Amino acid sequence: MENSFFIDSSFLSEAALKKKHSLENDPSTRTNPMEYMEGMEVIDSDIRSKVISQMDAYDYTQYTAQDVQRALENTSCTIEDFKALLSPAAEPFLEKMAQKSRLGTSHHFGNTVYLFTPLYIANYCENYCVYCGFNCYNHIKRLKLNTEQIEHEMKVIADSGMEEVLILTGESKTASSIQYIGEACKIARKYFRMVGLEVYPVNTKDYAYLHECGADYVTVFQETYDIKKYETLHLMGHKRVWPYRFDAQERALRGGMRGVGFSALLGLSDFRKDALASALHVYYLQRKYPQAEMSLSCPRLRPIINNDKINPLDVHEKQLCQILCAYRIFLPYVGITVSSRESKEFRNGIVKIAATKVSAGVSTGIGDHESKYTGKESTTSEGDEQFEINDSRSFTSMYTDMSAEGMQPVLNDYLYI
């Protein structure tokens, strides 16, 4: 795989170092994050303005214990109730929130928990996102799997018993073209009953093509809904264009995808406002596309290669639990995913309260499933990981543990007829 179009290589040239320094220290060298780049589809939608106006006006310090109590007593949860449940005033009510959340989860989802695994097929990236291990200036081992290697990795995963896979790439249209991702979807359809995508945002026609290739679901992390903060974190590349990323789920639904997932990366900005915006993004799209399946995840920052300063120090487990419970109370029918970024103990507990889906047998590296799943030496070269995971349980261990917790592990609930 030639990588001459990437800044990342065995070392940075003097010109690359100069550009990196300029991007980091001189805002005038960066493009406008609200200005679309050539080829980016602009759709006519009012969702964005609704979400941002609510987020900008949200002053969580104004909510009181009485507001929280009222929200918990209401049979349905309004936007104002949700804002109260996200506020600091709700922290003493966490046990009551968990009880209400657990009842809602049990009522709509029973005691089931869905299992899936991610598969990274390439880690080349053309963005400079300062918090991400794949960013184009980070010196890591880059790798792109070919179709034979993708099929081998998928077979190893499928042989373990897994029936749902989430395909991921770094954000590079050059290395991971739409056609390349489409071929991966076609291969995945041979082995899995459910195929999800977490790749760079694309236009409606591209989502339609990927759906035809076999993709069911698209997840896009907005990272943070705080536009000013977003601008300081995404210094270069297509990902810098904030509104194009925001509208990705709606374009995916217009392209025929069955479902879409949403998330902010907690710890990048004010986590309460990001949690509010994430949920409202779902809330408004639910009303516009009532036929679609929607889900939320709630990841926190994790350490990355060559950067030991990125840690989720400002969002603790109690606050994360509060957010997840508030999500469940506000959006009772939405799936909630808790990833391997969180600890075994936290995930074992939260599936009984609010979460409906967890990953298992996780690797955020490239081409290493054979070594991790079978213990054999991998026949595929391995590329570096995007971030460090916390819960490294295998599919078998996760299935056993979920059963021991009184949950019913589900591998797939969708039939093609």
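The above is record 1. Record 2 follows with the same two-line structure.
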Amino acid sequence: MVPNRRSGSLPAAGVAPALLAWFAAHRRPLPWRRRPTPYRIWVAEVMLQQTRVAQAVPLFGRFVDRFPTVDALARASLDEVLRVWAGAGYYARARNLHAAARQVAATRGGTLPRTVEALQALPGVGPYIARAVASLAFGAPVVALEANGLRVGARWTLETGRLDAPSTRERIARALSLRLPADRAGAFNEAVMELGETVCRPVHPNCPDCPVAVFCRARQELPDPGSIPVRVHRPPRPIVRGAVVVLEDPDGRWLVQRRPPRGLLGGLWEFPGGKIEARETPESAARRELREETGLRAGRLRPRGVVRHQYSHFGVELHVFEGPLRGPPGRTAPERRWLRPDDLTTVAMPKATEKILAAVVGARGARPGSGSHPDRTTTSPPRASRPRRGRARARRTTA
């Protein structure tokens, strides 16, 4: 921070005209910018909240092709929505989008509300999504700041606070709102995001190509504009070890089960398994988890490798086993299904389960079939182990 300079103060008044002129000439031809209906803008903003633009482009096309309107989304089953959403990750977004669509269809005739307050009353719609949709779709004169916009705003105003602090976000939003062109609020918000995505990058911002560099306090007053905003150093992510069983019945079908509707990867289907306890081998953990989750037992278990994946806050190491059902299958609960490998595309599965499927099919010497979706990018972690007799039931955290 430069001495005797107040951080968080306004960028120059000329920033909005310069930014909008640049955006008009350089805006990328992204699919949600073509035929920008309120519904398409809403879906895009929800998808982009935790998915990179390059990854979101084909996923957005697939989603709106299948569900082109609020009513079409509301009529679909949650299973179908989760299956089409696969690859975007953070499946709570899809569940909330579906619930909100049903609410809008039932109470508003399929027409999205126009105000920030009414939008924020919908399931899963927070302050940013509400402001983005209100401004981009309906021209509401409000500032909408996501990660890119906050970074841009922090550099414009020489904001030295941490971006995860509400007070910092409020200062940036207040500063930008004073430069917001009331008649072009949507374009301004979208231009700020575009600048952060393509020019004002997190590391090594491309200041020579920035259309508003002359108005940027970080550019004018700091030797390294990329030092703003302050970076938060996070500790290494822990690794969770788990064991998973691909159980086969006499008809060649595999047992899958649905995760609870709430929580991590809620509503997705996976193979039985869970956390490896202390002083427990992967195979003994696999047998215990299978028994505690389903009441079923397996014959000889064959190891099929280890699947690894990283999440935002932890990593997983899943030991995969395959084996035959031992004994009668009993009654199958509604949240469990016996499916043939080629029928696994009929249910929404996280990436970890697809990796497990590929490992088992590969071990059998066959090419992974239609049950594997290489374009998906999110995985499910192992579910926490079920309690043994005499101890409190553990909360599910693994898959």
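The chain has 14 helices and eight strands.
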